[in-house]
Specification:
Layout: H1 7-22, H2 28-53, H3 62-91, H4 101-125, H5 134-147, E1 155-156, E2 162-163, H6 165-173, H7 185-198, E3 203-205, E4 214-217, E5 225-226, H8 227-230, E6 238-242, H9 244-259, E7 265-266, E8 272-273, H10 275-286, E9 296-297, E10 301-306, H11 308-315, H12 321-326, H13 329-336, H14 349-352, H15 355-358, H16 367-374, H17 380-391, H18 394-398, E11 402-410, E12 413-418, E13 431-436, E14 443-452, E15 458-466, E16 470-476, E17 487-492, E18 503-507, E19 516-521, E20 524-536, E21 540-548, H19 551-556, H20 568-573
Antiparallel strand pairs: 1-2, 3-6, 4-5, 4-6, 7-8, 9-11, 10-11, 10-13, 11-12, 12-15, 13-14, 14-15, 16-17, 16-19, 17-18, 18-21, 19-20, 20-21
Helix pairs in contact: 1-2, 1-3, 2-3, 3-4, 4-5, 4-6, 5-6, 6-7, 9-10
Length: 574
């Protein structure tokens, strides 16, 4: 009798039923049977709810926010239900008549760990702090299975695949080791699905049994830490997590992915793990990563603009793309484009039609009524809004500038605080252009991490990529000789002081290693070849490149004079 067409109503009824179940005393087998009967409806409801509030702006509207809260409450009731069932069986196994007590408690613990892991994943996806007690619940359920000797017993997970309590625990535990606040929601789902598929390549054991990069205290309410930072004074409840076998496997996948042109890795559940996620996982799970610079409290006013298009616009001196490449000739190009002429199709019947002539007045209507039905009057405020909108410059509307304050800063970037007026396009991995007060130049940065706090504040970490950039149009040379339109790219100049070579920032798709590209802007043209992709997110890719000399340049070059760098004149201008 569940109203399956209304996901909110179904979730509310399921939550109420589970709450009643958790407060009712009954035989373990009956409790297990009720949970199994509810399982299919729970899975479908959770899937339907998450579709309606994920991929929303960080400051969610009221309805998605309520659905997220409902989903979190449903997870809480499920975790409690399976925890009660597991403890009940362990305390009184003699009451189990029709099932194997060990297998039943193993299935209950595995389900409790799975739902706890999915609850933690949901908090990461919403960039919220993990709820108090979540990590402790995850650790204690695993510890219970370990003490009962059930951690490696094979069971069937909710997806129908064979797994173990240890495998489910590790796939959820590692979420706390991969810097999830640097990932997008879709990337987190793909990584979690991949970890569920590859959990057999992770090992966990006591400090005397194995060595590992991470250490977890089963009596604590926190994610794993680097074992080197924890020391050897850990309690008997400390466990080391070894990730080297998984890292080796990821490196093999990365080599195959590079050979195929970086299409990503296909997973069993129809998901795909992007190529940049392979690099991210290898970096996070392969070695200890520490901050290079200490943070200093700083309240600096910053102008901030989001997106590669906005960064290109500011780097080009607030010139649009066509004007950057063609100069004043861009106006003539617009006039020569038949699709941009005001009256490009004089024979178009839609343009030829005259509504004044086509209108037929109702003979029965009075003159005042007829005039009212034919005219649309706007109030003064609406007319003013339309007029101001038409007078605005389209580029400034397209690339808005936000004024924010930093909380702390380091030579590598800023931590800024943003209130409720957070724009929709703020995403982890997005390119940003930053301008300090009293500074004329715009720096290029990337949104490295996001943290959404309970009091409606959002903390954003900006990593500086370069103190300045040069805007270009990139024309990709196809082997088939096909012409393509130029695309926006940013050239980040070399910084010799820190040993940073020149690189090129491009859009995420369309560019790959070993491509030959012409960099264009008014009065300048360079031929380069992309050599190695050094970084990538869902928003941009960053490449090393080398300069290729044209034949006429080689012929015209004066061999008698001293050889100079190909970019000498360019760097002096920068």
């Amino acid at each position: 009798q569940l109203p399956v067409a209304n996901a909110r109503a179904v979730a509310a009824q399921l939550q109420s039923a589970l709450d009643d179940l958790n407060h009712s005393e009954m035989a373990p087998e009956l409790r297990y049977a009720i949970l199994e009967a509810l399982s299919d409806s729970v899975q479908v409801t959770l899937a339907n709810l998450t579709k309606r509030f994920l991929h929303q702006p960080l400051v969610m509207p009221e309805e998605p926010k309520q659905l997220a809260e409902l989903t979190d409450n449903l997870y809480t009731q499920l975790i409690t239900a399976y925890s009660v069932l597991a403890v009940q069986i362990v305390n009184d196994p003699e009451r189990i008549r029709e099932h194997n007590p060990a297998r039943l408690v193993c299935e209950a613990i595995e389900s409790g760990i799975e739902y706890t892991g999915r609850s933690i994943l949901l908090s990461f996806q919403l960039y919220r702090p993990i709820a108090l007690g979540s990590w402790l619940t995850l650790h204690q359920l695993y510890a219970l299975a370990e003490r009962q000797g059930l951690a490696t017993l094979p069971v069937t997970g909710s997806n129908g695949q064979a797994t173990t309590v240890t495998g489910t625990y590790l796939s959820s535990l590692i979420l706390g080791c991969i810097k999830p606040n640097q990932l997008r929601q879709s990337d987190m789902v793909a990584v979690h699905a991949a970890l569920e598929q590859w959990h057999d390549k992770l090992q966990i054991g006591s400090q005397d049994a194995i060595d590992g990069l991470f250490l977890v205290d089963l009596d604590s309410d926190q994610a794993p830490l680097y074992s080197e930072l924890y020391g050897k004074q850990g309690s008997t409840q400390c466990r080391l997590v070894r990730t080297q076998e998984l890292v080796n496997y990821l490196q093999e996948l990365q080599e195959l992915d590079d050979a195929k042109g970086k299409p990503g890795v296909k997973l069993e559940q129809g998901l795909s793990l992007p190529s940049n996620m392979l690099s991210h996982l290898i970096d996070c799970l392969g070695s200890m990563s520490m901050r290079n610079f200490s943070r200093v409290r700083s309240e600096v006013s910053l102008a901030l603009s989001i997106g590669l298009g906005a960064a290109h616009f500011h780097a080009a001196g607030e010139r649009d793309f066509d004007h950057l490449i063609h100069g004043d000739d861009s106006i003539e190009r617009h006039e020569s484009n038949v699709f941009m002429r005001p009256d490009s199709s004089p024979q178009d019947p839609w343009r030829k039609a005259n509504p004044e002539e086509d209108f037929v007045r109702d003979e029965t209507a009075s003159g005042a009524e007829a005039e009212f039905t034919h005219n649309i009057e706007l109030d003064e405020q609406s007319l003013r809004a339309i007029t101001e909108e038409e007078e605005d410059q389209p580029q400034t509307r397209r690339y808005p500038v936000y004024h924010v304050k930093s909380i702390n800063a380091s030579p590598g970037g800023y931590c800024i605080e943003w209130g409720d007026d957070l724009p929709d396009d703020v995403r982890a991995g997005a390119v940003a252009s930053v301008q300090e007060e009293r500074s004329a130049s715009w720096s290029i940065a990337v949104i490295r991490w996001i943290s959404r706090l309970q009091n409606a504040r959002t903390l954003i970490g900006l990593e500086l990529l370069s103190p300045q950039a040069v805007a270009y149009g990139a024309l990709i040379h196809s082997k088939k000789g096909q012409e393509a339109d130029p695309q926006r790219v940013l050239l980040l100049p070399e910084i010799k002081l820190v040993g940073q070579p020149h690189t090129l920032i491009t859009s995420r798709s369309g560019f790959r290693e070993r491509q030959k590209i012409s960099l264009l802007r008014l009065g300048e043209s360079f031929l380069i070849q992309l050599t190695r992709q050094v970084a990538a997110t869902a928003s941009y890719a960053q490449f090393d490149f080398r300069y290729i000399k044209q034949l006429d340049e080689v012929v015209a070059e004066d061999k008698s004079g001293p050889l100079g760098a190909a970019y000498d004149s360019l760097w002096s201008n920068i």
